[in-house]
Amino acid sequence: xKHTEKELQSLKEEVREMWQLVLSQLEKCKQxxxxxxLEIAREVASREKRVNTFELxxxxxxxxxxxxxxxxxxxxxxxxxxIKICSTLERxxxxxxxxxxxxxxDDCTPLLQLIKDDLQVETMFDTVIAMLSDSYAxxxxxNTKLSGRIxxxxxxxxxxxxxAIRKLAEYVEKNPSHAPCVLETLLVLRxxxxxxxxxxxxxxxxxxxxxxxxxxxxxxxx
Length: 222
Hints:
Blueprint: H1 3-35, H2 38-69, H3 73-105, H4 109-119, H5 121-141, H6 147-174, H7 179-211, H8 218-221
Helix pairs in contact: 1-2, 1-3, 1-5, 2-3, 3-7, 5-6, 5-7, 6-7
């Protein structure tokens, strides 16, 4: 194996490790939010520094690779995609930590237990977790056929989010004293919805790397 190929494999392995960490963070923040588990929420918050460290290390290694080897074509697309993907993974990690901190600081558990099934909170979490997991599989297999299914899931998350806004508006109209907790719940759901958007961004980078196609801004063009 050429030295440059070894360096690329090392970059890919770093991204894999970061991806698995962020996926774990997302699964744990879901668990902590749905069960009001403070211990798990604190674990998510404390591990956020590891996610940040991964991002800085991968970005530095990618920049060094470009400077040393001046890659072209597919190798250059891979390195550029790795930079953007690790930055996006870090953002997803931020949202996971933010949700965990809602659990740590929040007094709205009774409200959540009353309406979480109606809001389909667990379904939203499960969908974005599946998006992140499927994106990882797409990169590992270098198979962009999964991209359409993943992007479709983002639309499902958007639909659930809009429906949740409507239900929360109805709820707060009937229970105005619960407005602060309704807003807290909405902030959490907004974070989940944004995670879905970021998973879509990752898929776009994978398609760019593998197929040399640009999907960004496709919705606005449509």
